[in-house]
Amino acid sequence: MKIAVIGTGYVGLVSGACFSEMGVHVTCVDVNSEKIESLKGGVMPIYEPGLKEMVLQNMNMGRLHFTDSLSDALSDADVAFIAVGTPAGEDGSADLSYVEDVAHQIGECIDHYILVVTKSTVPVGTTYRVKEIISEEIAARGASVEFEMASNPEFLKEGAAIRDFMSPDRVVVGVESKRGEELMSQLYRPFLINNFRVIFMDILSSEMTKYAANAMLATRISFMNEMATLCELVGADVNQVRKGISSDSRIGSKFLYPGCGYGGSCFPKDVNALMSTARRYGYRMGIIEAVEGVNNLQKRVIYNKLSENLGSLEGKVVALWGLSFKPETDDIREATSIVTINLLLDAGAVVKVYDPIAMESVRKVYGDRIAYAKDMYDVLDGADAMALVTEWKQFRLPDWEKIAATMRGNVVVDGRNIFDPEEVIKHGLKYNCIGKRY
To answer: Is 64 among the domain residues?
Structure first.
Protein backbone atom coordinates (compact mmCIF):
# COMPACT_ATOMS: atom_id res chain seq x y z
CA MET A 1 0.00 0.00 0.00
CA LYS A 2 1.13 3.55 -0.73
CA ILE A 3 0.01 6.56 1.25
CA ALA A 4 0.58 10.29 1.28
CA VAL A 5 0.76 12.25 4.53
CA ILE A 6 0.11 15.94 3.99
CA GLY A 7 1.81 18.04 6.65
CA THR A 8 5.08 17.26 8.45
CA GLY A 9 4.25 18.67 11.84
CA TYR A 10 3.98 16.57 14.98
CA VAL A 11 1.09 14.37 13.84
CA GLY A 12 2.10 14.05 10.19
CA LEU A 13 5.76 13.24 10.77
CA VAL A 14 5.12 10.70 13.52
CA SER A 15 2.33 9.05 11.49
CA GLY A 16 4.43 8.88 8.34
CA ALA A 17 7.44 7.43 10.14
CA CYS A 18 5.39 4.80 11.98
CA PHE A 19 3.45 3.69 8.91
CA SER A 20 6.72 3.31 7.00
CA GLU A 21 8.16 1.27 9.89
CA MET A 22 5.42 -1.29 9.20
CA GLY A 23 6.33 -1.59 5.55
CA VAL A 24 3.96 0.96 4.05
CA HIS A 25 5.42 3.19 1.34
CA VAL A 26 4.92 6.74 2.63
CA THR A 27 5.44 10.13 1.03
CA CYS A 28 5.25 13.07 3.41
CA VAL A 29 4.36 16.41 1.85
CA ASP A 30 4.86 19.96 3.09
CA VAL A 31 4.63 23.35 1.39
CA ASN A 32 7.72 24.47 3.29
CA SER A 33 10.56 23.51 0.95
CA GLU A 34 13.26 24.33 3.51
CA LYS A 35 11.62 22.01 6.01
CA ILE A 36 11.48 19.24 3.42
CA GLU A 37 15.17 19.65 2.59
CA SER A 38 16.04 19.58 6.30
CA LEU A 39 14.06 16.37 6.75
CA LYS A 40 15.84 14.81 3.79
CA GLY A 41 19.07 15.70 5.60
CA GLY A 42 17.90 14.05 8.79
CA VAL A 43 17.11 17.26 10.70
CA MET A 44 13.89 16.93 12.70
CA PRO A 45 11.62 19.95 13.20
CA ILE A 46 10.42 18.60 16.58
CA TYR A 47 11.86 16.61 19.46
CA GLU A 48 10.24 13.24 20.05
CA PRO A 49 12.13 10.26 21.51
CA GLY A 50 12.98 7.71 18.83
CA LEU A 51 11.59 9.73 15.94
CA LYS A 52 14.86 10.75 14.28
CA GLU A 53 16.18 7.19 14.30
CA MET A 54 12.95 5.83 12.82
CA VAL A 55 12.86 8.49 10.09
CA LEU A 56 16.48 7.90 9.06
CA GLN A 57 16.09 4.12 9.05
CA ASN A 58 13.03 4.14 6.83
CA MET A 59 14.47 6.74 4.49
CA ASN A 60 17.49 4.50 4.05
CA MET A 61 15.19 1.52 3.41
CA GLY A 62 13.38 3.46 0.69
CA ARG A 63 10.00 3.38 2.42
CA LEU A 64 9.80 7.00 3.59
CA HIS A 65 10.07 9.97 1.23
CA PHE A 66 9.67 13.73 1.53
CA THR A 67 8.50 16.19 -1.10
CA ASP A 68 7.00 19.65 -1.48
CA SER A 69 4.89 18.51 -4.47
CA LEU A 70 1.41 17.35 -3.51
CA SER A 71 0.63 16.13 -7.03
CA ASP A 72 3.72 13.89 -6.97
CA ALA A 73 2.75 12.47 -3.59
CA LEU A 74 -0.80 11.73 -4.72
CA SER A 75 0.12 10.31 -8.14
CA ASP A 76 0.09 6.69 -6.98
CA ALA A 77 -1.33 6.94 -3.45
CA ASP A 78 -4.11 4.70 -2.19
CA VAL A 79 -4.76 6.81 0.91
CA ALA A 80 -4.04 10.47 1.64
CA PHE A 81 -3.92 11.71 5.23
CA ILE A 82 -4.52 15.39 5.94
CA ALA A 83 -2.34 16.21 8.93
CA VAL A 84 -1.90 19.98 8.79
CA GLY A 85 -2.29 22.37 11.70
CA THR A 86 -5.61 23.60 13.05
CA PRO A 87 -4.47 26.39 15.40
CA ALA A 88 -6.92 28.07 17.72
CA GLY A 89 -8.41 31.35 16.54
CA GLU A 90 -9.02 34.36 18.77
CA ASP A 91 -12.49 33.09 19.66
CA GLY A 92 -11.20 29.63 20.55
CA SER A 93 -12.49 27.97 17.39
CA ALA A 94 -10.17 25.86 15.23
CA ASP A 95 -8.64 27.65 12.24
CA LEU A 96 -9.41 25.38 9.29
CA SER A 97 -7.72 27.46 6.61
CA TYR A 98 -4.82 25.01 6.20
CA VAL A 99 -7.17 22.03 5.98
CA GLU A 100 -9.33 23.77 3.39
CA ASP A 101 -6.28 24.83 1.36
CA VAL A 102 -5.19 21.19 1.19
CA ALA A 103 -8.71 20.14 0.15
CA HIS A 104 -8.61 22.58 -2.77
CA GLN A 105 -5.20 21.27 -3.86
CA ILE A 106 -6.31 17.63 -3.65
CA GLY A 107 -9.33 18.40 -5.80
CA GLU A 108 -7.13 20.11 -8.35
CA CYS A 109 -4.80 17.17 -8.91
CA ILE A 110 -6.26 13.74 -8.04
CA ASP A 111 -6.84 11.54 -11.08
CA HIS A 112 -7.69 8.14 -9.54
CA TYR A 113 -9.59 6.72 -6.58
CA ILE A 114 -8.13 7.86 -3.25
CA LEU A 115 -9.40 7.55 0.30
CA VAL A 116 -8.89 11.01 1.82
CA VAL A 117 -8.53 10.86 5.60
CA THR A 118 -8.66 13.78 8.03
CA LYS A 119 -5.98 13.10 10.63
CA SER A 120 -5.85 16.65 11.95
CA THR A 121 -8.05 17.40 14.95
CA VAL A 122 -11.02 19.13 13.35
CA PRO A 123 -14.48 20.25 14.49
CA VAL A 124 -17.43 18.00 13.80
CA GLY A 125 -18.48 18.29 10.16
CA THR A 126 -15.07 19.28 8.79
CA THR A 127 -14.49 16.01 6.94
CA TYR A 128 -17.68 16.56 4.95
CA ARG A 129 -16.63 20.15 4.26
CA VAL A 130 -13.35 18.76 2.86
CA LYS A 131 -15.34 16.37 0.68
CA GLU A 132 -17.44 19.24 -0.63
CA ILE A 133 -14.37 21.30 -1.55
CA ILE A 134 -12.66 18.42 -3.32
CA SER A 135 -15.83 17.66 -5.28
CA GLU A 136 -16.16 21.30 -6.33
CA GLU A 137 -12.57 21.40 -7.58
CA ILE A 138 -12.98 18.16 -9.55
CA ALA A 139 -16.16 19.50 -11.14
CA ALA A 140 -14.49 22.84 -11.92
CA ARG A 141 -11.93 21.10 -14.13
CA GLY A 142 -14.58 19.01 -15.84
CA ALA A 143 -13.21 15.76 -14.52
CA SER A 144 -14.85 12.69 -13.07
CA VAL A 145 -12.75 11.16 -10.29
CA GLU A 146 -14.06 8.87 -7.57
CA PHE A 147 -12.84 9.43 -4.02
CA GLU A 148 -14.12 8.83 -0.52
CA MET A 149 -13.60 10.36 2.91
CA ALA A 150 -12.65 8.94 6.29
CA SER A 151 -11.80 10.43 9.67
CA ASN A 152 -8.97 9.02 11.79
CA PRO A 153 -8.30 11.30 14.78
CA GLU A 154 -4.95 10.89 16.50
CA PHE A 155 -4.54 10.12 20.20
CA LEU A 156 -0.79 10.52 20.51
CA LYS A 157 0.87 11.73 23.71
CA GLU A 158 3.85 13.97 23.12
CA GLY A 159 6.94 12.30 24.52
CA ALA A 160 5.43 8.85 23.93
CA ALA A 161 4.05 9.26 20.42
CA ILE A 162 6.04 6.46 18.80
CA ARG A 163 4.93 3.96 21.43
CA ASP A 164 1.32 5.16 21.23
CA PHE A 165 1.23 4.83 17.46
CA MET A 166 2.96 1.47 17.30
CA SER A 167 0.93 -0.08 20.14
CA PRO A 168 -2.34 1.85 20.30
CA ASP A 169 -5.07 1.33 22.88
CA ARG A 170 -7.52 1.74 20.05
CA VAL A 171 -7.76 3.26 16.60
CA VAL A 172 -10.89 5.31 15.94
CA VAL A 173 -11.97 5.50 12.31
CA GLY A 174 -14.99 7.18 10.82
CA VAL A 175 -15.95 5.89 7.36
CA GLU A 176 -18.74 6.31 4.84
CA SER A 177 -18.47 3.00 2.99
CA LYS A 178 -17.35 -0.60 3.28
CA ARG A 179 -14.55 0.09 0.81
CA GLY A 180 -13.11 2.78 3.08
CA GLU A 181 -13.42 0.49 6.09
CA GLU A 182 -11.51 -2.27 4.32
CA LEU A 183 -8.70 0.08 3.29
CA MET A 184 -8.26 1.41 6.84
CA SER A 185 -8.42 -2.12 8.28
CA GLN A 186 -5.68 -3.22 5.91
CA LEU A 187 -3.53 -0.23 6.79
CA TYR A 188 -3.78 -0.66 10.56
CA ARG A 189 -3.76 -4.45 10.83
CA PRO A 190 0.06 -4.69 11.33
CA PHE A 191 -0.15 -2.43 14.39
CA LEU A 192 -2.88 -4.46 16.05
CA ILE A 193 -1.86 -7.95 15.07
CA ASN A 194 -2.18 -9.27 18.62
CA ASN A 195 -5.22 -7.27 19.62
CA PHE A 196 -6.98 -6.03 16.51
CA ARG A 197 -9.03 -3.15 17.83
CA VAL A 198 -10.06 -0.61 15.25
CA ILE A 199 -13.29 1.02 16.28
CA PHE A 200 -15.30 1.92 13.21
CA MET A 201 -18.11 4.45 13.37
CA ASP A 202 -19.68 7.21 11.33
CA ILE A 203 -17.51 10.20 10.44
CA LEU A 204 -19.28 12.78 12.62
CA SER A 205 -19.01 10.56 15.69
CA SER A 206 -15.31 9.92 15.10
CA GLU A 207 -14.63 13.67 14.91
CA MET A 208 -16.53 14.20 18.16
CA THR A 209 -14.75 11.30 19.86
CA LYS A 210 -11.39 13.09 19.76
CA TYR A 211 -12.75 16.22 21.42
CA ALA A 212 -14.78 14.25 23.95
CA ALA A 213 -11.74 12.18 24.96
CA ASN A 214 -9.49 15.17 25.54
CA ALA A 215 -12.23 17.10 27.30
CA MET A 216 -12.77 14.16 29.69
CA LEU A 217 -9.06 13.92 30.50
CA ALA A 218 -8.84 17.67 31.01
CA THR A 219 -11.88 17.45 33.29
CA ARG A 220 -10.20 14.85 35.50
CA ILE A 221 -7.08 17.03 35.79
CA SER A 222 -9.01 20.18 36.69
CA PHE A 223 -11.21 18.25 39.12
CA MET A 224 -8.16 16.97 40.98
CA ASN A 225 -6.53 20.40 41.00
CA GLU A 226 -9.67 21.92 42.45
CA MET A 227 -9.75 19.20 45.11
CA ALA A 228 -6.09 19.97 45.85
CA THR A 229 -6.92 23.60 46.56
CA LEU A 230 -9.69 22.59 48.94
CA CYS A 231 -7.41 20.04 50.63
CA GLU A 232 -4.89 22.77 51.41
CA LEU A 233 -7.61 24.97 52.88
CA VAL A 234 -9.08 22.30 55.17
CA GLY A 235 -5.80 20.57 56.07
CA ALA A 236 -6.28 17.35 54.11
CA ASP A 237 -3.63 15.64 51.97
CA VAL A 238 -4.64 15.44 48.31
CA ASN A 239 -2.25 12.55 47.68
CA GLN A 240 -4.07 10.45 50.26
CA VAL A 241 -7.41 11.54 48.82
CA ARG A 242 -6.24 10.52 45.34
CA LYS A 243 -5.27 7.07 46.58
CA GLY A 244 -8.63 6.70 48.28
CA ILE A 245 -10.77 7.60 45.28
CA SER A 246 -8.61 5.92 42.63
CA SER A 247 -9.07 2.57 44.38
CA ASP A 248 -12.68 2.73 43.22
CA SER A 249 -12.76 0.71 39.99
CA ARG A 250 -15.36 3.10 38.57
CA ILE A 251 -12.86 5.97 38.87
CA GLY A 252 -9.37 4.53 38.47
CA SER A 253 -6.07 6.38 38.81
CA LYS A 254 -5.39 7.80 35.34
CA PHE A 255 -5.14 11.60 35.08
CA LEU A 256 -5.90 12.15 38.77
CA TYR A 257 -2.56 13.66 39.74
CA PRO A 258 -2.69 17.25 41.01
CA GLY A 259 -0.22 19.71 39.57
CA CYS A 260 0.28 23.19 38.21
CA GLY A 261 -2.08 22.95 35.24
CA TYR A 262 -2.19 21.27 31.85
CA GLY A 263 -0.85 22.77 28.63
CA GLY A 264 0.40 21.67 25.24
CA SER A 265 -1.08 21.63 21.78
CA CYS A 266 -4.11 19.43 22.48
CA PHE A 267 -6.02 19.90 25.72
CA PRO A 268 -6.29 23.73 25.77
CA LYS A 269 -7.04 23.96 22.05
CA ASP A 270 -9.50 21.07 21.99
CA VAL A 271 -11.39 22.24 25.07
CA ASN A 272 -11.81 25.68 23.52
CA ALA A 273 -12.78 24.25 20.14
CA LEU A 274 -15.41 22.04 21.76
CA MET A 275 -16.95 25.04 23.53
CA SER A 276 -16.85 26.99 20.27
CA THR A 277 -18.70 24.21 18.47
CA ALA A 278 -21.35 24.17 21.18
CA ARG A 279 -21.80 27.95 20.94
CA ARG A 280 -22.44 27.66 17.20
CA TYR A 281 -25.37 25.41 18.03
CA GLY A 282 -26.66 27.68 20.76
CA TYR A 283 -25.50 25.45 23.61
CA ARG A 284 -23.30 26.30 26.60
CA MET A 285 -21.04 23.58 28.01
CA GLY A 286 -20.95 24.55 31.68
CA ILE A 287 -18.69 21.73 32.85
CA ILE A 288 -16.12 22.30 30.10
CA GLU A 289 -16.11 26.05 30.73
CA ALA A 290 -15.38 25.33 34.39
CA VAL A 291 -12.58 22.94 33.42
CA GLU A 292 -10.87 25.68 31.45
CA GLY A 293 -11.42 28.24 34.20
CA VAL A 294 -9.92 26.01 36.87
CA ASN A 295 -6.90 25.26 34.67
CA ASN A 296 -6.25 28.94 33.99
CA LEU A 297 -6.23 29.60 37.73
CA GLN A 298 -4.05 26.55 38.40
CA LYS A 299 -1.34 27.83 36.08
CA ARG A 300 -0.82 30.67 38.57
CA VAL A 301 -0.33 28.35 41.55
CA ILE A 302 3.48 28.30 41.43
CA TYR A 303 3.62 32.08 41.27
CA ASN A 304 1.11 32.35 44.11
CA LYS A 305 3.14 30.05 46.35
CA LEU A 306 6.33 31.95 45.57
CA SER A 307 4.59 35.20 46.50
CA GLU A 308 3.26 33.72 49.74
CA ASN A 309 6.74 32.62 50.76
CA LEU A 310 8.84 35.54 49.52
CA GLY A 311 6.47 38.46 49.89
CA SER A 312 7.56 41.08 47.39
CA LEU A 313 9.24 39.45 44.40
CA GLU A 314 11.01 42.61 43.32
CA GLY A 315 14.68 41.73 42.79
CA LYS A 316 14.23 38.16 44.08
CA VAL A 317 16.00 35.43 42.13
CA VAL A 318 13.71 32.55 41.18
CA ALA A 319 15.00 29.36 39.52
CA LEU A 320 12.69 27.16 37.45
CA TRP A 321 13.22 23.48 36.76
CA GLY A 322 11.45 22.45 33.56
CA LEU A 323 9.92 24.57 30.81
CA SER A 324 8.15 22.24 28.38
CA PHE A 325 4.47 21.58 29.04
CA LYS A 326 5.36 17.96 29.86
CA PRO A 327 8.51 15.78 29.92
CA GLU A 328 10.10 14.30 26.79
CA THR A 329 9.17 17.17 24.48
CA ASP A 330 10.42 20.65 23.60
CA ASP A 331 6.85 21.91 23.19
CA ILE A 332 6.09 25.01 25.29
CA ARG A 333 2.67 25.79 23.84
CA GLU A 334 0.27 26.76 26.64
CA ALA A 335 2.94 25.67 29.14
CA THR A 336 2.63 26.63 32.80
CA SER A 337 6.25 27.79 32.66
CA ILE A 338 5.28 30.62 30.30
CA VAL A 339 2.53 31.85 32.62
CA THR A 340 4.91 31.62 35.58
CA ILE A 341 7.75 33.46 33.86
CA ASN A 342 5.45 36.25 32.70
CA LEU A 343 4.05 36.74 36.20
CA LEU A 344 7.51 36.73 37.76
CA LEU A 345 8.89 39.24 35.28
CA ASP A 346 5.89 41.52 35.80
CA ALA A 347 6.57 41.35 39.54
CA GLY A 348 10.20 42.41 39.05
CA ALA A 349 11.81 39.05 39.80
CA VAL A 350 15.04 37.79 38.27
CA VAL A 351 14.21 34.54 36.46
CA LYS A 352 16.70 31.74 35.83
CA VAL A 353 15.65 28.60 33.95
CA TYR A 354 16.80 25.12 33.05
CA ASP A 355 15.20 22.40 30.92
CA PRO A 356 16.91 19.39 29.31
CA ILE A 357 15.34 19.99 25.90
CA ALA A 358 13.18 23.14 25.71
CA MET A 359 15.76 25.88 26.42
CA GLU A 360 15.98 27.07 22.84
CA SER A 361 12.21 27.16 22.48
CA VAL A 362 12.01 29.46 25.50
CA ARG A 363 14.96 31.55 24.37
CA LYS A 364 13.05 32.38 21.18
CA VAL A 365 10.29 33.86 23.35
CA TYR A 366 12.26 35.71 26.02
CA GLY A 367 15.71 36.40 24.57
CA ASP A 368 17.91 37.95 27.25
CA ARG A 369 15.03 38.86 29.57
CA ILE A 370 15.75 35.72 31.59
CA ALA A 371 18.91 33.73 32.40
CA TYR A 372 19.61 30.25 31.00
CA ALA A 373 21.61 27.76 33.05
CA LYS A 374 23.86 24.93 31.91
CA ASP A 375 22.38 22.34 34.26
CA MET A 376 19.87 21.75 37.05
CA TYR A 377 22.24 22.86 39.81
CA ASP A 378 23.83 25.80 38.03
CA VAL A 379 20.38 27.41 37.76
CA LEU A 380 20.10 27.43 41.58
CA ASP A 381 23.21 29.54 42.17
CA GLY A 382 22.14 32.52 44.29
CA ALA A 383 18.43 31.69 43.99
CA ASP A 384 16.00 32.81 46.68
CA ALA A 385 13.57 30.11 45.58
CA MET A 386 13.30 27.23 43.17
CA ALA A 387 10.19 25.80 41.56
CA LEU A 388 9.70 22.52 39.73
CA VAL A 389 7.41 23.11 36.76
CA THR A 390 7.97 20.05 34.56
CA GLU A 391 8.64 16.59 36.04
CA TRP A 392 11.58 15.47 33.89
CA LYS A 393 13.08 12.21 35.22
CA GLN A 394 16.40 13.81 36.06
CA PHE A 395 14.65 16.05 38.60
CA ARG A 396 13.09 13.20 40.58
CA LEU A 397 15.95 12.36 42.93
CA PRO A 398 18.04 15.52 43.33
CA ASP A 399 20.94 16.13 45.71
CA TRP A 400 19.20 18.21 48.38
CA GLU A 401 22.41 18.84 50.29
CA LYS A 402 23.93 20.39 47.18
CA ILE A 403 20.73 22.35 46.52
CA ALA A 404 20.67 23.80 50.04
CA ALA A 405 24.34 24.80 49.75
CA THR A 406 23.87 26.39 46.30
CA MET A 407 20.72 28.43 46.91
CA ARG A 408 20.72 31.76 48.71
CA GLY A 409 17.22 31.23 50.04
CA ASN A 410 15.35 28.12 51.15
CA VAL A 411 11.98 28.11 49.34
CA VAL A 412 11.11 25.04 47.24
CA VAL A 413 7.85 24.82 45.29
CA ASP A 414 7.08 21.35 43.96
CA GLY A 415 4.60 22.02 41.18
CA ARG A 416 4.17 18.32 40.34
CA ASN A 417 4.38 16.67 43.80
CA ILE A 418 7.35 14.46 42.91
CA PHE A 419 9.74 15.21 45.80
CA ASP A 420 9.97 13.49 49.19
CA PRO A 421 8.89 16.23 51.63
CA GLU A 422 10.94 14.82 54.51
CA GLU A 423 14.10 14.81 52.40
CA VAL A 424 13.57 18.44 51.43
CA ILE A 425 12.72 19.65 54.93
CA LYS A 426 15.57 17.88 56.72
CA HIS A 427 18.06 19.91 54.68
CA GLY A 428 16.66 23.17 56.02
CA LEU A 429 14.51 23.93 53.01
CA LYS A 430 10.90 25.10 53.09
CA TYR A 431 8.76 22.68 51.11
CA ASN A 432 5.60 23.64 49.23
CA CYS A 433 3.53 21.34 47.03
CA ILE A 434 0.06 21.07 45.51
CA GLY A 435 -2.74 19.93 47.81
CA LYS A 436 -1.09 19.82 51.24
CA ARG A 437 0.31 22.38 53.64
CA TYR A 438 3.69 21.69 55.25
So the answer is: yes
Distance of CA 118 to the CA centre of its chain: 18
Strands 114-118 and 2-6 come out as: unpaired
Decide if 392 contacts 322 (C-beta within 8 A).
yes
Which residue segment(s) compose the domain that 332 sits in?
299-432
In sequence order, which residues have a C-beta less than 8 Å from that of residue 395 and are 6 or more positions away? Answer: 321, 322, 376, 388, 418
Please tell me whether residues 290 and 384 are part of one structural domain. Answer: no
Give the distance between the most distant pair of CA atoms in the chain.
79
Domain boundary (201, 234, 254) is at: 201
pLDDT at residue 93 above 90? no
Q: Count of domains in the chain?
A: 3
Residue 399 neighbours by CB under 8 Å, 6+ apart:
377
Residues 30, 8: contact at Cβ < 8 Å? yes
The string of pLDDT tens digits covering residues 215-243 is: 999 999 999 999 999 999 999 999 999 99
> Active site residue: 28, 231, 266, 433, which one?
266
Active site residue 266: yes
What does DSSP say about strands 79-82 and 114-118: parallel, antiparallel, or unpaired? parallel
Distance from the Cα of residue 132 to its chain's centroid: 30
CA separation, residue 238 to residues 229, 257, 259, 334 (Å): 9, 9, 11, 25
Q: What is the pLDDT of residue 196?
A: 66
**What pTM was estimated for this model as a whole?**
0.91
Are 279 and 303 members of one domain? no
